[in-house]
Amino acid sequence: RRERQRFVDKNGRCNVQHGNLGGETSRYLSDLFTTLVDLKWRWNLLIFLLTYTVAWLVMASMWWGIAYLRGDLHQAHGDTYSPCVANVYNFPSAFLFFIETEATIGYGHRYITERCPEGIVLFLFQSLLGSVVDAFLIGCMFIKMSQPKKRAETLMFSRAAVISQRDAKLCLMFRVGNLRNSHMVSAQIRCKLIKSRQTPEGEFLPLDQCELDVGFGTGADQLFLVSPLTICHEINSESPFFCLSQRSLRSEQFEIVVILEGIVETTGMTCQARTSYTEDEVLWGHRFLPVMSLEDGFFRVDYSQFHATFEVPTPPYSAKE
């Protein structure tokens, strides 16, 4: 069977694009900080560089303009003449004075004199504007660098899901694992079945979402993820797979979206990892190979067998049958 369009890729990326927003694009500007954080890194760096470059050139031009209007550019700076900014004779020197002031370097060669009220006002404006720009852009870059998206790449899901019997009950199972030694605090897992259906009134729902119970009532969805775990969905009368058999599985079209959420222990930020399984990735009559073994004083996890399955005797009938 050819690969069909997925709602969520295996790496967790959602294949949804928003188009024809019309006048609603102004909502992105109302939340400018989040918009900048959501941009790709190349656009963030470009905006970062352009903002500082333009701000530096504009403020340096204002200092040069004050010196030009006062006639300081063509006067000798000494005891007989007190300029607005000492030792500012051209635009490069005005630009250097602005950088020294903005970066609080203060070499001492260029400084504002007390006989320049317009320079004092501009200095106060520069200090306030610089603080706002620094807080906005540096805060945006810090938030983007500290996002826990990369942490989700060290959370693993099995390539396939399996259907077999556990405790004499037909179950849908898949495996999750954590590659890092740091734990996921308050880890919780949820599953959504995405499948098209038609209501009794004739309405067609192309991406209808249905919850798959993976232990919400018993607390089994709260994970202690220090070693690979097998997540189990019991196929009973309340399950949407109640009528699913080995034969009907070949003709079904559905997608199971798995969402794993937790708090990163080292940063305290919430992390979310996603994956999905289509009907082609559900193996009937299979079980996962064990990956845990007891060594000298510790348990060892063999991740080379993380995705491996083997066949087990499983009735080809549905849970209803």
From TrEMBL:
Keywords: Ion channel, Ion transport, Membrane, Potassium, Potassium transport, Transmembrane, Transmembrane helix, Transport, Voltage-gated channel. It is a multi-pass membrane protein. GO terms for biological process: potassium ion import across plasma membrane; regulation of monoatomic ion transmembrane transport. GO terms for cellular component: monoatomic ion channel complex; plasma membrane. It catalyses: K(+)(in) = K(+)(out). Residues 155-321 form the Inward rectifier potassium channel C-terminal domain. InterPro entries: Ig_E-set, IRK_C, K_chnl_inward-rec_Kir, K_chnl_inward-rec_Kir3.1, K_chnl_inward-rec_Kir_cyto, Kir_TM. The record marks D134 as: Role in the control of polyamine-mediated channel gating and in the blocking by intracellular magnesium. It is found in: Membrane. The keyword Transport applies. The chain crosses the membrane at residues 45-66, 120-143. It holds the Pfam family IRK. Its main location: membrane. GO terms for molecular function: G-protein activated inward rectifier potassium channel activity. Residues 8-148 form the Potassium channel inwardly rectifying transmembrane domain. PANTHER family: G PROTEIN-ACTIVATED INWARD RECTIFIER POTASSIUM CHANNEL 1 (PTHR11767:SF99), INWARD RECTIFIER POTASSIUM CHANNEL (PTHR11767). Belongs to the inward rectifier-type potassium channel (TC 1.A.2.1) family. KCNJ3 subfamily. This is G protein-activated inward rectifier potassium channel 1. It comes from Vireo altiloquus (Black-whiskered vireo). The gene is Kcnj3_1.
